[in-house]
Amino acid sequence: MASQNPSDVPAFPVVRDFSTIEEIIDYIVNTRQARYAHDGDCAGESLLGFHWQASEVDELSKQLDARLVELEELKIHRFEYDYESATVYLDILGESRLHYTVRMGRRDHIKNHIAKSLATAKDVGIRALLRSIDEPGTAVVECERNILKQPDGESRQRVEKKSRQYIDSSDGKIQVALIIDLQYPGMKKAWVSLLAADDSSSSWVQHSDLFHDDHLDQQPAGQLALYLSDFVGMAPGIPAALCRPSTAEVAAGITRNPTIALTYERLRAIFRRARHLHSPTEFTMEAGDEEENPYEEMERRLATANEERTELERRLATANEERTEMERRLATANEERTELERRVVEMERRLAEGRLEAE
């Protein structure tokens, strides 16, 4: 996630000295409280740097997040480590509501499409690949002796640079980087870019395409085409039809239907909803901006199916009871018939004996 007109941030933050995790936690919490008291919003960027042993970096990240969750604080959303200087760099402030809601809206839209694809896919291998997809935006990459995590809320230039590093240094683990660039704090315009792996380097599929502008009477049309290979790479067994066409294939006129088509119209809806939640008195939403959740529809269908199953089971139980009753009555009738037949035999015997005595 990028921002136009970001707050001024020093390129190299002051490196502080901490000896324990609790000292780091105290600094983060106090800084956040001070920012909230001043701004009323945890927006912008505030980088914290401190030295830490490389062998303990992974554990440090986990412990910081776990401790912040215990304190009901936001987890660290950007974490970098410079091996050469043994320095950790953290963005200790959270995203603005605008950035967070846009990021979650984009994530949920992609997850919903993946869920729909999974529900309709008949091939067992494709279903397995769809299930294997990690949540977009969670990758951790070693690059130029740095550990980098997703760069939310930074300037466009820094995000683009890191996106290239992600793809070019990930050994094929990252296939695309999707960048949504928001005018902030004005919130009048928004752009989108898509960077994709192509052979040994990365290339722009779309670069700073405007998808929303309050000053335009007619909003731009377009879409981002995402393919299964963008999420799972060139996994064994993935059909060519589900792979992103290379630059050479596109030049040769080869096209393929995308697995997910993220339209500019849907991006606008996500943006409108996000800025309305961020500033409800200034911005409004439009009908349809709230995306339907396919999981809710599946849960509704499942609930209906369970109700129908319960009703069928009730009817079956009633039918079994009626059958049992019929079998009981039949058994009683057979007993009565047997008794009548016994009586008839007895009467015939007596009649025969009577005739013998009369003779």
Automatic annotation (TrEMBL):
<protein>
    <submittedName>
        <fullName>Uncharacterized protein</fullName>
    </submittedName>
</protein>
<feature type="compositionally biased region" description="Acidic residues">
    <location>
        <begin position="287"/>
        <end position="296"/>
    </location>
</feature>
<feature type="region of interest" description="Disordered">
    <location>
        <begin position="286"/>
        <end position="337"/>
    </location>
</feature>
<feature type="compositionally biased region" description="Basic and acidic residues">
    <location>
        <begin position="297"/>
        <end position="337"/>
    </location>
</feature>
